[in-house]
Amino acid sequence: MNKKDNFLKGIFRENPLFVALLGMCPSLAVTTTLENAIGMTIAVIFVLVLSNFIVSLIMSQPKLAKLVRPVRIPVYIVVIATLVTLVEMLMHAYLIGLYKSLGIFIPLIVVNCIILGRAEAFASENKPVDSLIDGFGMAVGFGLAIIIVSVFREFLGTGLLTIWKDLQVDLNFIFDFLRIQPLAMFTQPAGAFITLGFILAVIAAITAKRQAKQAKEVKANG
Amino acid sequence: MNQSKGYMSGVVLLIMGLICGLLLAFVNELTEDRIEAEELRLKFEAIEEFYNIDNFNQEEVVLDDGSIYVLRNKNTNEIEHLVYSLTAKGYNEDVEMLVAVNKDLSVEGYTVTYQNESPGIGTKIVGYDFNYNEANDLSGFDGVSGATVSSSAVEAIFQQVADRVENDFGGGLDE
Question: Which residues from chain B sit within 8 angstroms of residue A82, using beta carbons?
Answer without folding.
Answer: 20, 23-24
